[in-house]
Design a protein that fits this description.
The two termini are 14 Å apart. This protein is an all-beta fold. The protein is built from no helices and seven strands. The model has no long low-confidence stretch (mean pLDDT 90). The protein has one domain. It has strands at residues 21-25, 28-35, 38-47, 50-61, 73-80, 85-92, 100-105.
Length: 125
């Protein structure tokens, strides 16, 4: 579930991302990882004899010049897998109100288990 920093498909060159951070808070194992134009956090809870994915939080931006400015749009996605609810919000830093907010439902059963999770699964959420 951890993406190699020097993947063979990249001919051993650095992939540009740091090794993810893991931490435990209130009984939830979280993995924070860098992704293209942002970051993603996976929350796992020990239940039913396994660590199961219960929440995914992703923050991305549309910056194309390598830095953010007053026109950069940040998209925050929060996927509560236990309820099957995905909320996406687009906003500009410093704005009082979001530009757009979307709510979708997507029920995934059984919940993904940590031992079955791969770093390529970041494209699923």
């Amino acid at each position: 579930m951890i993406e190699p920093q020097y993947p063979t498909e990249n001919k051993g060159k650095f992939n540009g991302y740091q090794i993810p951070d893991f931490f435990i808070e209130d009984g939830i194992l979280s993995m924070w990882s860098e992704i293209k134009s942002g970051n993603i956090t996976y929350d796992f809870k020990y239940q039913n004899g396994n660590f199961e994915l219960i929440n995914v939080k992703k923050l991305t931006n549309n910056a194309t010049k390598g830095y953010t400015d007053e026109n950069t749009v940040f998209t925050e996605m929060n996927f509560d897998l236990t309820k099957g609810i995905i909320i996406e919000t687009d906003e500009i830093s410093g704005a009082e109100k979001p530009l757009k907010s979307r709510k979708k439902t997507k029920l995934i059963r059984p919940l993904p288990r940590i031992q079955d999770f791969k770093f390529s699964d970041k494209n699923l959420y």
